[in-house]
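Late entry, written up from scratch paper. The run itself happened at the end of the previous shift, but nothing got recorded in the book at the time, so transcribing now.
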Amino acid sequence: MSGILGKKIGMTRFFEESGRSVPATLIEAGPCPVVQIKTKDKDGYSAVQLGFIEQKIKRVNKPKLGHFKKTEIPPHRVLREFRDFKLDVKEGDKISVDIFTVGQKVKITGISKGGGFAGVVKRHGFSGGPKSHGQSDRLRAPGSIGQSATPKRVLKGLKMAGRRGGNRITVNNLEILKVIPDRNLLLVKGGVPGARNSILEIRN
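Output as recorded:
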């Protein structure tokens, strides 16, 4: 498995040869330098660490600055590891979008949009209480959350109000519609998790 880091630009539409319009996501992917190569002998597992989005040196702390100084790569804001990287690379190499081809299926991982604190109706799709018969404050309430006698407690994992979104989500089998190497752009069929300008991990 190999991959690249990218940034979600936004959504658009793509017209297929038949004239059918399909939703698509535009992603700015790479170029990503290989910052570190981890091996089983030294680190206990094999992985390739990629960087994304160059960062001003004034905003980099000393440990991170020293980490980049080993390979003489300018500091990058985002660092991610890709395990079992299949491409033959060495530290200092750059990974670009030309590792992908049109029609290839990829899986994309990102952090979903955060929705803040939400009730059970918005968060889990509960129907709420009855809309008539004299009820006044049960319209969006969760209802009963347990039994009175047995087991005399609220069971773990019960769907209740709380923070919505902000989770790490992976979407599989997304088709690449277009690759634009000179502008480091990928056009992927369908939607991907995250808001605009959020960081994505794209794996083949």
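The longest strand covers residues 3-15.
(Scratch paper discarded after transcription.)
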